[in-house]
Design goal:
Belongs to the ABC transporter superfamily. Keywords: ATP-binding, Cell membrane, Membrane, Nucleotide-binding, Translocase, Transport. InterPro entries: AAA+_ATPase, ABC_transporter-like_ATP-bd, ABC_transpr_CbiO/EcfA_su, ECF_ABC_transporter_ATP-bd, P-loop_NTPase. It comes from Chroogloeocystis siderophila 5.2 s.c.1. The protein is an alpha/beta fold. It has a domain of about 120 residues: P-loop containing nucleotide triphosphate hydrolases (Rossmann fold, 3-Layer(aba) Sandwich), CATH 3.40.50.300. The chain is built from 9 helices and 10 strands. A 6-stranded mixed sheet has the order 6-7-8-3-9-10, with helices on both faces. A hairpin with a 2-residue loop joins strand 9 and strand 10. Helix 2 crosses helix 3 and helix 2 packs parallel to helix 4. The two termini are about 20 Å apart.
Length: about 250
């Protein structure tokens, strides 16, 4: 089920022979995959299969045990800030820590060496795109889960990344907040990877899906084909999404 892609398309991420262990615990084993510019890629897999770990490696937070990762053709170096990529954390509380929503959104652009005018442009654009005009003066700590989620996304979008990694973005969202998030993701222009157990969200937003399990990419293809394969899904602790069982 692996897809072959033309080499001529620009690679946003090129992962080559990536292996990673947390001391004795082997998580990823010799993974190679390319994400092309403009793709919306879902990352699925059972609990503990290494989705978050793969994101942390891709952002340069963790150092590979072996192998290489290239971001827009330039190798990732651990600890180096790469404004081309943004990570939206699984828990927005890990990302929001300033006294106002506006300050939180401005934090990234302010640390990129931009002028005050440029920072303000980035902040206003992120507020507009995420539709959080009504939250700007609020204290992030007091927001609801859905509100925090969109503010955390705004904080990342404000740095104008070309590629955004979303780690479980719909976890703990009610139906209305989840619907708003899906609409936002569908309208987003960036290349994106979305790690999620919300398979219906992946179906609605992504044009490609990777199934990660036992340290390997088990399947890579069209979300309907991969997630519609019941034996494959069940073999890796997942369920075929309901919407694919009724059509
Ligand atoms: N800092 C760490 N130190 C040691 N082991 C870790 C650490 N972080 C994660 N792990 C382990 O690495 C494995 C992969 O974890 P990871 O969080 O990447 O999985 P995941 O696919 O994102 O899981 P989930 O779907 O539950 O969010 C798990 O067995 C986890 O317990």
């Amino acid at each position: 089920m692996k897809q072959q892609y033309s080499e001529s398309v620009t690679a946003a991420i090129a992962i080559q022979n990536l292996t990673f262990s947390y001391s004795q615990l082997s998580v990823l084993q010799n993974i190679s995959v390319t994400i092309r510019t403009g793709e919306r890629v879902g990352l699925i897999g059972p609990n503990g299969s290494g989705k978050t770990t793969l994101f942390l490696l891709t952002c340069g937070v963790l150092k590979p045990t072996a192998g290489k990762i290239f971001l827009f053709d330039k190798p990732i170096t651990v600890g180096e800030f790469r404004p081309e990529i943004g990570l939206v954390f699984q828990n927005p509380n890990d990302q929001l820590f300033l006294p106002s929503v506006r300050d939180d959104i401005a934090f990234g652009p302010e640390n990129m060496g931009l002028s005050a005018t440029e920072v303000e442009e980035c902040v206003q654009e992120a507020i507009f795109l995420t539709g959080i005009q009504n939250l700007v003066e609020r204290v992030p700590h007091n927001l609801s889960g859905g509100e925090k989620c969109m503010v955390a996304i705004a904080g990342v979008i404000a740095m104008r990344p070309q590629l955004v990694l979303y780690d479980e973005p719909s976890a703990n969202l009610d139906m209305r907040s989840r619907r708003r998030l899906i609409q936002f993701l569908q309208e987003s222009q960036q290349t994106m990877m979305i790690s999620s157990h919300d398979l219906e969200l992946i179906l609605e937003v992504c044009d490609r899906v990777l199934l990660l399990d036992q340290g390997q990419i088990i399947a890579d293809g069209n979300p309907r084909d991969v997630m519609g394969d019941q034996p494959l899904m069940e073999a890796h602790g997942l369920e075929k999404p309901f919407s694919l069982t009724t059509h």
